[in-house]
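Researcher: Please predict.
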Amino acid sequence: MQFSMTFAVAALAAMASALPTISSIEKRNVQYVAKRTGNIGQDKGIMHQCFNGLNDGSWHDQYQCGGFYWQMQGQRYNSPGNCWASGQLQFNTGIDNNVYDQQSDDYEGAAHCWIQMWSVTQG
């Protein structure tokens, strides 16, 4: 009995030490706006590839892909990869639901990043 109780306490302590502390969890304030919906006019797979193209470790001023403009920028934001991750769910869901003009903003204190997608023909 003593051995199993000691083992259980040791196992719980090991599991607790593997969990992140509250101070290490990023607090995010992500805002998303779907501005225009309709027929995207493109294969959604291509649109997902275009969005995934933003996730290369760099900020993107503006690039054209799949008939759309894409942008990912930040001010005092720690990394482009974290910015991309903050908007990943919203953008992929938007593409799947024919949103062709969308924006995601992530605010972390004084830091801010944003991702935008809009139609080339819409300007």
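Model: The first strand starts at residue 29 and ends at 37.
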